[in-house]
Amino acid sequence: MVQPKTLLISFLFLSLLVFIESKHDNHEVKEEEEEIVLKRSMFPNDFIFGVATSAYQVEGAYLEDGKGLSNWDVFTHVPGNTEGGENGDVADDHYHRYMEDIDKLEYLGVNAYRLSISWSRILPRGRFGDVNPKGVLFYNNIIDNMLLKGIEPFVTMHHFDIPQELEDRYGGWLDPQMQEDFVHFAKICFEKFGDRVKKWITINEPNIYTMFAFMEGTYPPMRCSIPFGNCSAGNSDLEPLIAAHNMLISHAKAVKLYRQQFQPTQGGSVGLAVNAFHFEPYTDDEFSYQAVERSYAFNFAWLFDPLIHGDYPPLMRKYVGNDLPKFSKQEKKLLKGSVDFLGVNHYTTFYAIDCLNSDECTLTENRPVKGFVGITSTRNGILIGDETGIPVFHVVSYGMEKLLNNLSIRYPNTSIYITENGYSPPNYKEGSEMLQDFKRIEYHKAYLVAVAKAMRKGAKVEGYFAWSFMDNYEWGQGYKVTFGLYYVDRNTMKRTPRLSARWYKDFIANTEKSSTY
Ligand SMILES: *[C@@H]1O[C@H](CO)[C@@H](O)[C@H](O)[C@H]1NC(C)=O
Ligand SMILES: *[C@@H]1O[C@H](CO)[C@@H](O)[C@H](O)[C@H]1NC(C)=O
Ligand SMILES: *[C@@H]1O[C@H](CO)[C@@H](O)[C@H](O)[C@H]1NC(C)=O
Predict the structure, then answer these.
(1) pLDDT tens-digit profile of 36-57?
(2) Which of 497, 348, 347, 517 is nearest to 438 (CA)?
(3) Which ligand 2 atom sits nearest the alpha carbon of residue 409?
(4) Closest Cα to atom 14, ligand 1: which residue?
(5) Is 408 in the pocket of ligand 2 (CB under 6 A)?
(6) Which 3 state secondary structure label does DSSP give 85?
(7) How far is the CA of 453 from the centre of ligand 2 (A)?
(8) Model confidence pLDDT, tens digit, residues 413-434
(9) Active centre residues (catalytic)
């Protein structure tokens, strides 16, 4: 175990080295390879620096004040479904501690906070029942108190949790009826909160959600088919595509409603958040470069292309054919240009392996729905980056820069918010040992430098949200995957700022002393 002091000295030493190198060696070094030390001044004054959470992961109070059951409440209560049987019944008890938490946001000095609304807290039975006034009151309290401290709400409407009733009635996102339910929910949100909420994210990560819920069957409603998994029902090749299709159309209909009925008076903007990875070619040949192209298409362009250009990426159509649902002419019109900004959740980079001409792929990778791309984090026995608490996530900060530059080529002049970016340590440890989180600081610094470099090359990035404000319920993986700038004691619920929280505060305030971290 390296003592913090030793680490501190070596960090100091390292940054000195970088400084000396860049002073004397600047003629040979190309701009891309130059070591850059992160500074607040690399970002515009009005740049958004925030932190993010989502409702189910932090709120708890799963049965309080008239809230209906969500799909996650039901799913996590079935033995065997989640790591250690853990659930979000209490989570971080944010429902009762939000005032304390807003004080902590103020301490951090963030100018924005990304939260999500629990659909079943507002509409316990979806459109088949009434609005729950106590649910509305809870979010009003949060929003009002944030605004009092000068913190802008970025509100996600749907972040993985839906009222269970919609699942029971018609199978949730697999059914087009969901479009009507989503628009109903969105309308309530605009009506109740839109006078104060000016940044909306309709849906979080349709690509990740549909993969786990309908391809691998590890999130509710646990549907899949062999060889992806052995669920009691489902079709892993088709259903993720159908569910995402319904999500996209739901988004577009909600945005149409917003633009017609609310935007003229409320003046806000709407986006959708996608989990976007970067991919590097596994080998230095044309097949691998094509695999990277397909990875981009099947990972984020699947969703961003329709929102910007009005239809799925041609590469997806080419490989998935008629299994990929089609938009009607009217739907295309509705979708095209239906976002004011792209929400980008970015964590890591993979190597992309071409499965069309290689036998290095698994059975599941070698399918049309995966674009015939295999992914790996290892090449020639060497990991692509340092390990994290999510086994397939590694620290690859240059991936952020390349991703953002590629996004701005594909979607020119489109505003981007990094709606999630963060680090969890590979080995969970209880208690104070976890407070000295140098690796998390290093991660955020390196990724922020990558954002700044991409912006210098023209990426229109307007904000950055660290995932996460505090440790929380990491879905099926429970509480031992910790992304928080704040450590949350599971027994007492006490929140303690990690070193990274102090660093982020100092960085945002531009009072960072380089020797401190
Ligand atoms: C799938 O699960 C069923 C029921 O648990 C079992 O009978 C069957 O052998 C499993 N199939 C495979 C291929 O694992
Ligand atoms: C886009 O991604 C590819 C594939 O990794 C990479 O080679 C390229 O440099 C990226 N483009 C930009 C402009 O960063
Ligand atoms: C880019 O977008 C802004 C507003 O979103 C607009 O004012 C500007 O004209 C656009 N620039 C180009 C080159 O399209």
Answers:
(1) 899 999 999 999 999 999 999 9
(2) 517
(3) 13
(4) 230
(5) no
(6) helix
(7) 14
(8) 999 999 999 999 998 877 666 8
(9) 205, 420
